[in-house]
Amino acid sequence: MTPHTPDSLLALARNFMESRVFLTGAELDLFTLLAPEPLSLDEVTSKTGADRRALEMLLDALAAQGLLVKEAGRWRTEPTVAPFLVEGAERSVLPMVFHAANLWNNWSELTRKVVPRRADAAGAEFLAAFIGAMHVVAAPQADVIVAAVGAGGARRLLDVGGASGTYTLAFLRANPGMTATLFDRPPVVEMARVGLGAAGVLPRVTLAGGDFATDPLPPGHDLAFVSAIIHQNSPAENLALYKRIHEALVPGGRVVIRDHVMQPDRTGPRAGALFAINMLVGTASGGTYTFDEIAGGLARAGFERVRLVQAGERMDALVEAFKAP
Prior knowledge:
Layout: H1 6-27, H2 30-33, E1 39-40, H3 41-48, H4 52-64, E2 68-71, E3 74-77, H5 82-85, H6 94-108, H7 110-114, H8 123-149, E4 156-160, H9 166-174, E5 179-184, H10 186-198, E6 205-209, E7 221-227, H11 235-248, E8 249-259, E9 261-262, H12 270-282, E10 289-290, H13 291-300, E11 304-310, E12 317-322
Parallel strand pairs: 4-5, 4-7, 5-6, 7-8, 9-10
Antiparallel strand pairs: 1-3, 2-3, 8-12, 11-12
Helix pairs in contact: 1-4, 1-6, 4-12, 8-9, 11-13
């Protein structure tokens, strides 16, 4: 047996996302609907009665999985899978797929079957688990991301929504003359205090509590880092955030955004198309965005010289922009 790695274990934990997208596509009978001819979003919305925004995310995720083909803003069932996913076809496996969808809810209760009185994590426990998960994802790539960002002579970092301080620590480790402000909700800031204190960098860090969705950000910084934040927000919410970041930067300061950056047709990178579904079910209005959408928001907030520093398959794309000198 091949030994597991951190990546293989995380893949095992997330496989349900791929399955759920496929099952929902089958339950809505999208493969049968889209087999005869390609249809536009408006046409599929009309025929299914689905929510337009949610349906577009689902169709793009199915295309990213190779189950649909997207061309010129229209989707069709991938021809090689159509014989197996069209209702009534001789070799259709849809009845078994429908059965698997029916099993979904039962399997979701497995933990409570094993430990009937176990309560779901809530409140502080949920927050600690989420912040800990973000550290597990960020830690292996933080130094590589920071190297790709480059300090560019920056001396004062603003880590917006900095969580446990994984990236703050990586920036300070790579740039001995830099100081940082980590801004996040007060309970999260206290988690960061523990980790940054253990790493010995707390004297170089200002911990600021607040809500980046509503509160002004601490001013006077020449580099703002926004890691895995914008996918939580609507375009309007991101514009408001970009404006607050613009205010917090000194003239000539730079913002760098780390997130999924989608291809223009939104079917790639595959992980980003699936992550959009995660935001659909987990947030009020979040999603994943193309470079043009991100760049447009930054420009409207007053930034200039917006560019894609690097593309990425695993939420490691980087976009930078500058405040005018």
